[in-house]
Design brief:
Mean pLDDT: 88
Number of helices: 12
Largest sheet: 7 strands, parallel
Distance between the termini: 87 Å
Radius of gyration: 23 Å
Shape: globular
Low-confidence stretches: 1-28
Structural class: alpha/beta
Order of helices and strands: HHEHEHEHEHEHHEHHHEH
Strand content: 5-15%
Number of strands: 7
């Protein structure tokens, strides 16, 4: 038997070629069932680095919302490459817990935590002042902090709108503005990564405030990349897909738990969800010396999920029905 015969005699799963013969539609002749689809391969294991060791040695990376979830995962990958970290967030206890986890990452530099509500420009300035007092100016800013909750647009209160837009868009602007002004004054290069969302392009039924805010973030990325590029400051966006993690919001967790155990994978073109470290690798690349000519770009890391379309769309279910809300009615005191 030749090598070619041996190769043809066994398929990837080790079955005989006779069992693997498929009809033109891809179904097995023996069972009539289509072969399983592989989806996108899994990433390298935890602890692997996407860039050379020490890529960020001696550089300070500020991550807003860095105490939990994807913000902490992104911070961990910068730490693995030698970065000093400054993580900011509103909850002191979560920041301290994250600081211990991040400080234990192999290769990590120093890790500092700062309690900060990015909606307060004065407090944002104080975080930069404290870094300056220690002789540091963040080299990289990751705008990860955001607010969001599902709500039919007609039910969204003025306070609800402000809570989301003031954090997601205005807070991102305050932090980016402070970063940019200090680098412009110092004449030093820098890199900004703002976490966005795919519904900045598509709209986000049920998330009107967040979709509007994220569209603003995307526009800021493109505007500031042009304005600040001549001064050596890169500005890019990063859009995550579905990356389950322990700090997911209740609405996302409930939606996943309501589905069958493997349904979240079957709903992705990649046939799997993302792993948080994959988002971290994308962020470390965008701010690295290897991406110096990448600016004004928004990188989507979601396995092509936002581009998925059905040949025949499913029936339309109004957002109110999806959220289990009663029919809308004006309050009694509204004429």
């Amino acid at each position: 038997m030749t090598d070619r015969d041996r190769d043809r005699g066994t398929n990837a799963g080790g079955a005989d070629a006779a069992d693997a013969d498929a009809d033109p539609g891809g179904a097995s002749r023996s069972t009539g069932c289509p072969p399983p689809l592989p989806g996108l391969p899994p990433p390298p294991p935890p602890g692997a680095a996407a860039l050379p060791p020490g890529t960020y040695a001696g550089r300070l990376v500020l991550v807003t919302g860095g105490g939990t979830g994807l913000g902490r995962a992104v911070a961990a990958e910068f730490a693995r490459l030698g970065a000093d970290l400054l993580i900011a967030g509103r909850r002191e206890e979560r920041l301290h817990a994250a600081r211990e986890v991040l400080a234990a990452v192999p290769g990590a530099g120093s890790v500092t935590a700062a309690v900060c509500d990015i909606r307060d420009p004065g407090r944002v300035a104080e975080v930069f002042d404290a870094a300056a007092a220690a002789g540091r100016l963040p080299d990289v800013l990751v705008n990860n902090a955001a607010a969001n909750f599902p709500c039919p647009a007609e039910d969204l209160s003025p306070n609800g709108w402000r809570a989301v837009v003031d954090t997601t868009l205005t807070g991102t602007w305050f932090t980016t503005r402070e970063f940019g002004r200090r680098h412009l004054a110092a004449g030093t290069p820098g890199s900004v990564i703002s976490v966005g969302a795919s519904y900045a392009w598509t709209g986000g039924p049920g998330f009107a405030a967040s979709a509007a805010a994220k569209a603003g973030v995307k526009s800021l990325v493109e505007t500031l990349a042009v304005e600040w590029g001549p001064y050596g400051i890169q500005v890019n966006g990063l859009v995550p897909g579905l990356f389950p993690h322990e700090d997911m919001t209740g609405d996302i967790r409930t939606g996943l738990e309501r589905a069958a155990p493997d349904a979240k994978d079957a709903r992705q073109p990649a046939l799997r969800v993302g792993l948080p470290r994959e988002l971290g690798w994308a962020a470390t690349f965008l701010a690295s010396p290897y991406a110096r000519f990448v600016t004004g770009h928004t990188l989507v890391v979601d396995g092509a999920n936002w581009q998925r379309r059905a040949l025949v769309n499913p029936p339309v279910v109004p957002v109110r029905d999806q959220l289990g809300r009663a029919p809308f009615a004006l309050p009694p005191d509204v004429p």
